[in-house]
Amino acid sequence: MIAIVTGDIINSQNTDSELWLPKLKNLLGSWTATPQNWEVYRGDEFQVKCSVDEVFSKSMMIKSLIKTFENLDVRLAIGIGNEVFLSEKITESNGSAYVNSGRLLNDITTEGRTLAINTDNDKVNRDLNILFKWTSIDFDSWSIATAEIIHRLLINPELTQEELAKELNITQSSVSQRIKRSHFDLIQETDLFFRKKIAEL
After folding, report:
1. Based on C-alpha coordinates, what's the Rg of the chain?
2. What is the distance between the alpha carbons of residues 127 and 194, in angstroms, rounded to a whole number?
3. Is 123 helix (H, G, I), strand (E, B) or coil?
4. CB under 8 Å to 179, separation ≥6 — which residues?
5. What pTM value is reported for the model?
6. Cα–Cα distance between 173 and 99 in angstroms, integer?
7. What is the pLDDT of residues 34-91, one digit of tens each?
8. Cβ atoms 53, 45 nearer than 8 A
9. Within 13 Å and on the Cβ side, how many CA atoms surround 67?
10. How far is residue 160's CA from residue 162's CA, in Å, rounded to a whole number?
């Protein structure tokens, strides 16, 4: 099984792509090679392949990166399944993971949701999508400051509060307050729950 994330940037037409696009490409490129395993297409849509275990945390890395830009957000459709045809370009590869992800993006765009998952197991889909609906209430309302903290901690969980304070040019007490407001511990717990749930597939 593999995981495919198909996403699109919300409000991209109102923001200069030169601000966010290089950073998104840099993030995706730090994980894997393009165009076989990730690609940005049609200006503001993208697709990336990753391991099933890592797909939630990587989705959160993408979400927190995009939320550091004013008025931007991202829709993320996670598809889990097989890969029956591997092309030199991810957008030309095929399998149930790709189908599950691509169709789901259309669905959540219509429904106004920003995070959902589609696997071949209806029970896992139901349980995880209820969880994602609740967590998205928090994720979708992240401020730029909250998104910055979360993104840095997801990329490097070993960062100390002192190091974060230095990076962000704020006091350690401000870092502590932002981490509390970000509910970062809940993101970590959700990731652990996701990994256990996805093991049922």
Report:
1. 17
2. 10
3. helix
4. 149, 153, 161
5. 0.96
6. 46
7. 999 999 999 999 999 999 999 999 999 999 999 999 999 999 999 999 999 999 999 9
8. no
9. 26
10. 5
pLDDT at 3 over 90: yes
Write the pLDDT tens digit of every residue in 149-188: 999 999 999 999 999 999 999 999 999 999 999 999 999 9
Going from the C-alpha of 124 to that of each of 66, 83, 98, the distances in angstroms are: 27, 20, 18
Helix 144-155 / helix 55-66 crossing angle, nearest 10 deg = 140
Residue written as token pair 């959540």: 108
The whole-number pLDDT of residue 201 equals 85
> Under a CB-based contact definition with an 8 Å cutoff, are residues 127 and 190 in contact?
no
Q: How far is CA 200 from the centre of its chain?
A: 22
Beta bridge partners of 79: 4, 118
Q: How far from 126 is each of 1, 42, 120, 155, CA to CA, in Å?
A: 19, 31, 11, 29
Taking only the tens place, the pLDDT of each residue in 101-141 is: 999 999 999 999 999 999 999 999 999 999 999 999 999 99
